[in-house]
Specification:
The structure is a homodimer. Chain A is of the alpha+beta class. Chain A is about 35% helix and about 20% strand.
Chain lengths: ~600, ~600
């Protein structure tokens, strides 16, 4: 089946004299999650993971993917001619090295320029010189007979009672920034940026309430390129009222080709695809820059923060009910990871204004939790037992906010290592959550706060510490990032971030403790301006695995205060055994 | 006097049609400290501080300097036509802004290209376009009648028992790096780089045992451009043995002009001056890069580390004797800051292989310590009293290493704030000194470890946390830096750095606790490779100002362990009241 597809692709390659064909995991807007229509890499390789790149030559077919997917990819590729190249493993050829080795100078390398970002294209161009890049080859479409349709979900308005500021005000802010930069046209391609900018939402991609579209802001016009079938009358009225002109999605390229010469067009090369950039009138001056909207969107306003508090309260109620259900059910041997995941969804569905999960729930029991991005295999369900640790990372999309939370709970007896690692992860969490920092500090600087307590024990986690979180939008949102990889973005007042250190012991257990927090000003004095975090998440942190001796007095106080706050905020919304569970879970820990 | 000089300069400017003349604080090698010959900015302005830039126009004369020198500069400029522009103060015009404002497009801006780095020249060129830069104007020399002579101090060999590796081996290492980069010629201009590379030292600049010189490494030759009068027979023999060709200092430009075309010449634009770069044959390909030698020099070898341990032991003996003398003398009212400084020098002079201080001692009593770079005014001596805090930041040049240490001691009764701020500074020091970190972490990341405890109290210090330290070389050495300003340089095993947090309360008191440490590997495990610090400095940390309740058990243990180690290492070298002082100073602190 896969080999047959390879044969078809190779025939198309031969017809066009293409030596190597690249298939990326991406859509025209470089979205993190893909609509089925854009799962071309999965179609051609059979590999279902969320990240990877395929290169097909006349006699080789390679899939590159990262450590999260080595086992899964090997399994899914077996039986086909595909070979797995493990990214990050020393000695593995990079895609560029491979292409330089396999394609002779002058040879042609093809790909679908509709799904390759302008940034990636430029990088390829720089690194593969003497090879020709052919960017208009949608070979996959030619051979994908039963390709899923593009989504047709309706657009809806995200009301001002949630957004706090109107589309008009947001467009104004963008224009102010455009003026500073001397820009006449600003092309927005990232779908969450467009949804934020126009205060609209859609349902084109699972977990992300966005709409396939483009936006262009001119000095006195705002345009919205979208499948017009998705716009019902109320939305058209709304757009009219806000002077947002709507046009067919495909019209974007004509529009770009007609921008008057000598104008200045700004766009983010990381989110605009090659073909779209190439459609711009060649006399237009292109300004490549980070996204203006992303920077505005990242700083939440007061209404958004207040909505988020409510969303996290509802999410907390769902989580407490869920964990009570888990702990009650586990001893019966009937609770599988997958069932737990479903139950959690049903608990969230009971909450008002819940739309869908914000990402695929990670319900990881025991050694499965050692894989930070674990996904259960429905074919061989894992049942929870009254021992060890159970890690659940999940989130919800509510009209009043996007949630994301990880709790790791004890289902019974724990080993000393499990307790120790749990306590260290908690120390790491507290170290960052309770820290103050100077205005201007980057997420890289803050990352150090989280890892300091783990480093003392010569331990670490191989993922970032925190990401930005959207507001009823993508659960992963930039530009900020709390990570051991430097990024020149300060963590600003009003930003929402996750704090999620972990510890993972291969084949044994895994722990992650994640809260979402927003950044607020703490004090301005002779030493400068100090910022700190206010935690939004309201779900008790399990105290049973804690080795109290490893906590300082300050840390213990933080833990007790946090759980006490959870009790105060949640108890009004819980009854019966759920309330009893909450009481038990938030009991003060004493030495 | 100053105004007369200004008149003379303006006459020279008028003759050449120069609209603005820049005088920088620098020598041809961009040394941190200047030989008297190069103190041109001091000559023209009367301002004696270590940092500042002068711009003279037809009717204005401006000095820019930073916050350390606002008071001193205002005082020293008074009575002249010079105006002070305070760098870092909002609303102050930058030098570039000033030049753009005062010099019309097409106007000429002059300076001495012999003392302006190529890097600064390029920056001026970029920011001042439409203005002409004239870089060959040594106007100061024309009017400086009694200009001091260039130093004539002899060069001497830094023996292999100190350096551990020979000049030959170091040159070889440089050539390996040159080959990787495809470089034929490497021009070394930083004086400490040259001293390190050829294992020689000199005495051309106070505090820095370096020689005015250039080095060039070719694929099969090594050249040393130096005032040949400085080379006695033993040094000439040494250079011959190591196949290092020596030539007159001024020959460098002829040499550079004769490099064959199409060769590749690498240099560090931050340390090579404009005129030297311009003398290179214009057909040579220039590669601008960080200094190769600096990166090699920064990682100390085993011999160097062992020598350093001995140097710091001797330095510790001197410091304990000094502090005993201070505390004994203070109640008599006869100990001034300046006298203390002199006494400290005499204590160091008693130690073997001591050469000179490694920088000007900062002996700051009481409120004076609130100025991190305080220098006493000999005209109005400050006498120590048996109360408050006394901060002493000092260092020595020994054949077996460069030392740098700050201790702040209680001379008697302290205020609650003094105690609290001392304890917080100590917590900050311990937080970094006791930390482990992952291989690859930068100094910016580590800076977070030091400031975390201060941020908790919404306090901070407005200087870096640590700098590299040379080995019988400059006390400030790159490329590493532990600072809240990001620099993409990992802190590597073998690097030597200072750890020197502080707290400064204007008009009241100042505290800094500084140790020098080297970086060593702690453990390599499944989580990665962990590095940590081993402290070289051996001087007790005063425990009298410590508020024990503010220290965690771990911190208290660290303090007691450190002082115990000081006792163990120093007690054999002290007798009588010095030994008693040490015993008292290293007594265990208990809750």
């Amino acid at each position: 089946m896969i080999n047959q597809k390879l044969m078809q692709i190779r025939k198309l390659m031969a017809n066009r004299g293409i030596s190597a064909f690249i298939v990326t995991t991406s859509d025209p807007h470089q979205s993190e999650y893909l609509a089925d229509y854009y799962k071309t890499r999965e179609f051609i390789s059979g590999f279902t993971g969320s990240a990877g790149t395929v290169v097909i030559t006349r006699d080789e077919a390679i899939l590159w993917t990262d450590g999260r997917y080595f086992i899964q990819a090997a399994y899914e590729l077996s039986g086909s001619d595909f070979e797995l190249y493990k990214m990050g493993v020393p000695g593995t050829m990079s895609i560029t090295e491979f292409l330089l080795d396999r394609v002779q100078p002058g040879g042609k390398i093809g790909f679908d320029g509709n799904c390759v970002s302008y940034k990636l294209y430029r990088e390829l161009l720089e690194n593969l010189d003497d090879r020709m890049l052919i960017g208009n080859l949608d070979f996959i479409d030619s051979i994908w007979k039963d390709r899923p349709a593009l989504p047709k979900e309706k657009v809806f308005i995200h009301e001002i009672k949630y957004t706090g500021t109107s589309a008009g005000r947001r467009i104004e802010k963008v224009r102010e920034e455009m003026e500073t930069k001397g820009v006449d046209y600003y092309l927005v391609s990232a779908l969450d940026d467009i949804a934020y900018l126009y205060c609209i939402r859609g349902n084109d991609i699972s977990y992300n309430p966005v709409v396939f579209s483009y936006a262009v802001i001119e000095k006195d016009r705002a345009l919205f390129f979208v499948d017009l079938d998705k716009l019902e009358d109320d939305v058209r009225d709304y757009l009219d009222e806000n002077s947002i002109e709507y046009r067919e999605y495909d019209e974007i390229r004509n529009y770009l080709s007609e921008i008057p010469g000598k104008s200045c067009l700004l766009f983010d090369p990381a989110t605009v695809n090659l073909n779209t950039v190439e459609s711009v009138n060649s006399n237009v001056k292109l300004i490549k820059s980070g996204s203006i909207v992303q920077n505005i969107k990242a700083v939440k306003n007061e209404t958004e923060i207040n909505c988020l508090k409510n969303a996290y309260l509802k999410d907390g109620v769902a989580l407490v009910k869920f964990f009570n259900w888990v702990e009650t059910g586990t001893p019966t041997g009937t609770v599988s990871e997958v069932l737990a995941s479903k139950k959690l969804l049903s608990m969230r569905e009971q909450q008002s204004d819940f739309i869908e999960p914000s990402f695929e729930t990670i319900p990881a029991y025991g050694e499965n939790a050692a894989m930070p991005h674990y996904s259960p295999n429905p074919a061989s369900p894992v049942y929870l037992k009254p021992e060890g640790l159970f890690l659940v990372d999940s989130g919800g999309q509510y009209l009043d906010g996007t949630t994301d939370i990880t709790r790791t709970i004890a289902l019974g007896k724990l080993t000393d290592d499990e307790k120790k690692h749990y306590t260290l992860t908690l120390k790491s969490h507290i170290s960052l959550a309770s820290a103050y920092f100077k205005k201007g500090a980057t997420g890289y600087y803050l990352d150090a706060f989280a890892r300091l307590p783990l480093f003392k024990y010569k331990m670490d986690y191989a993922h970032g510490t925190g990401h930005g979180v959207g507001f009823f939008l993508n659960v992963h949102e930039g530009p900020q990032s709390i990570s051991a990889v430097y990024k020149d973005v300060p963590i600003k007042e009003g930003m929402v971030v996750s704090i999620e250190p972990g510890l993972y012991i291969d084949g044994s257990h895994g722990i992650r403790i994640e809260n979402i927090a927003y950044v607020k000003s703490i004090e301005k004095n002779d030493f400068g301006e100090f910022l700190g975090f206010e935690i939004l998440s309201i779900v008790p942190i399990d105290t049973r695995p804690v080795i109290v001796e490893l906590l300082s007095d300050e840390e213990l106080k933080w833990l007790n205060d946090y759980n006490k706050k959870c009790y105060e905020l949640l108890s009004d919304y819980l009854t019966g055994s759920d309330l009893m569970y909450l009481e038990e879970a938030t009991k003060e820990v004493i030495r």
